[in-house]
Amino acid sequence: MKRLGIWLAGAALLAACTPTLETMTRAEAIDMCKARASDGARTTTGNLTLGVNSHTGPTFGAGIGINLTPKPYDVTFENCMTELAANGQIVEG
After folding, report:
1. Domain boundaries, the chain
2. Could you tell me if 81 and 29 are in contact, meaning their C-beta atoms sit under 8 angstroms apart?
């Protein structure tokens, strides 16, 4: 009986840690995959941060990212849509 309880507790923990996949409409999937493909095809990115803190005063920051291996937009978009469809994440409605 004790072994059964331990086994059930372990099974419950494993089930609680299993990721659930978000479902989305086809239009939402297309928008998400377009954004993912656009990010993958981009060669450079940058950001600029400005802020003010009452303890330390003004803060400034800047960053740049360079993608040395950009992926083709069409390939990334198709792979994204295929992955979502294969996982059953695209629902009609």
Report:
1. 21-91
2. yes
Would you state the pLDDT for residue 79? 95
pLDDT in tens, 23-63: 899 999 999 999 999 988 888 888 888 899 888 889 989 89
Rounded Cα gap, residues 50 and 15, in angstroms: 44
Residues 70, 45 contacting (CB under 8 angstroms): no
* Torsions phi, psi for 72 (to 5 deg): -60, 135
DSSP state string for 19-43: --PPPEEHHHHHHHHHHHHHHHH-S
Q: What is the mean pLDDT of residues 6-33?
A: 80
